[in-house]
Specification:
Blueprint: H1 7-32, H2 36-46, H3 54-66, H4 68-77, H5 89-104, H6 110-124, H7 129-144, H8 146-153
Helix pairs in contact: 1-2, 1-3, 1-5, 2-3, 3-5, 4-5, 5-6, 5-7, 6-7, 7-8
Length: 154
């Protein structure tokens, strides 16, 4: 018989689901141009949000688009072999969402942000896109979270 999950474990699972849906919602926003409020309502209506950190989902969905200029600049600084325009929409949604978390959510360890993005890249991205996402986010993390990254390397 397994032990019941702790509050922290439950939160981790809810955040993982929030990122999953937020990435899909950001992709939909980019591709359809629908309003964020409409997309938010659709996702909350069409999916079981009982095991989702709905507040985190909403933060990502509404704050990433309003920060695209800053986030895209951060992402561009981590690119080596392509331009922002050459990034497919799934990868771009993941990179923007993760760059936002690296910049704005200092309560989430940078390794968690990168691992979650890589995991979603493996699930939704093109073959080997997770490697590209990892490489770019490593550079963005070093920019945003230099001391935390350096401490993690020691």
């Amino acid at each position: 018989m397994s032990k019941p999950l702790t509050e922290q474990q439950l939160l981790v699972g809810k955040r993982r689901k929030a990122r999953h849906y937020a990435m899909q919602a950001l992709y939909q926003w980019k591709m359809s141009g629908s309003s964020l409020n409409k997309i938010d309502t659709e996702f909350r209506t069409d999916n079981d949000f009982s095991k989702v950190d709905g507040e985190y989902f909403g933060e990502l969905l509404h704050n990433v688009p309003s920060s695209c200029g800053t986030l895209d600049t951060m992402i561009e600084s981590g690119l080596t072999d392509r331009t922002l325009d050459e990034i497919n929409p799934v990868e771009l949604a993941l990179l923007r969402m993760s760059a936002y978390e690296l910049q704005a959510r200092l309560d989430v360890p940078y390794k968690v942000v990168i691992n979650e993005a890589v995991s979603l890249g493996k699930k939704f991205g093109a073959t080997d896109s997770h490697k590209f996402i990892n490489a770019v986010l490593d550079k963005v993390a070093a920019q945003c979270r230099g001391p935390e990254v350096q401490a993690g390397e020691q």
